[in-house]
Amino acid sequence: MVSSQHETQPLLDKKIDEHDGDVKDALPPPRYSFSSNDNTVAEPASAVNGLSITGSYQLDPSLPLEKTDRRGGWHRHETPPTANLQARHGNITTKIAVTGDAPCANHATIRATSRTGDITLDITEKSAARNVDIETWTRRGTTIVLLPPTFAGVIELNTCRGRLIQLPGLEEKTALLRSTEQTLSFVVGTVCGDGKDAKADFVRLSSKKGGIAVGFSGVDGEAQALENVRKELSACRRRCGSC
After folding, report:
1. Is residue 38 assigned to a domain?
2. Is 7 helix (H, G, I), strand (E, B) or coil?
């Protein structure tokens, strides 16, 4: 469940239609494939407004979800995300603290999707009893994700025409798993256990044409440095053939 630290624009898992003010449930991010072209990329079925999403939030995955939170296109056998952020043309800029120490439901799942807007997620902290599963998707916008210093797990970056960047604070603590022009995957820290008992974090960041950067919250989060990274990502899109 999500609790906001201060008043913000839209709430998580909700979006407000700017014409009639109706509140609608959000859908999960589309399953994206780089083999599809711009005209066939899957998108949420319902209309999404162009408002930006900003704010600071606390997530405790052990708290029960409201019944309305179980809608939004998720099948009954699927577990809905703890936080589901969606904007069609607006930007998503949030700070999130993953909290709680209850032994049950220790995984916090965060989804962020914007068709043309930029995505900036700053996961400021993660308690020792929690793991995070983060997934973002944008077609044209840039993506910057800052992870808590306690992050330990695998990170996958995927883009067709953008640039992939590991920010300095994170780069020195990673071990490379795979690197191509379109994909970069690496592991951070030590993963405990294996199989279903594995206590690991996971991040997958995807963009069709935008660049992606990932780093650590705090050390890589200085405002001017992030603005420089944002400009670099926007200016350095790779030119490539159709994907």
Report:
1. yes
2. coil
Provide the token pair at 55. Answer: 């704010």
Q: Rounded to whole angstroms, how far apart are CA atoms 157 and 211?
A: 10
Residue spans of the chain under pLDDT 50: 3-28, 30-48, 69-77, 195-197, 238-243
pLDDT tens, 129-149? 899 999 999 998 999 999 999
Question: How much of the chain is in helix, strand and coil states, percent to nearest 5?
Answer: 10, 40, 50
CA–CA dist 220, 214 (Å, integer): 9
What is the total count of domains within the chain?
Answer: 1
Q: Within a domain: residue 44?
A: yes
Q: Is 18 exposed, middle or buried (0-12, 13-18, 19+ CB in 10 A)?
A: exposed
At residue 55, the pLDDT reads: 93
Residue 187 is part of which domain span? 2-235
Residue 199 falls inside a structural domain: yes
> Cβ–Cβ contacts within 10 Å for residue 77, how many?
5
pLDDT at position 65, please? 67
**Residue 71 lies inside a defined structural domain of this protein:** yes
Cα–Cα distance measured from residue 61 to residue 78, given in angstroms and rounded to the nearest whole number: 15
What pLDDT is attached to residue 42? Answer: 36
pLDDT in the model for residue 80: 83
Residue carrying structure tokens 């910057």? 144
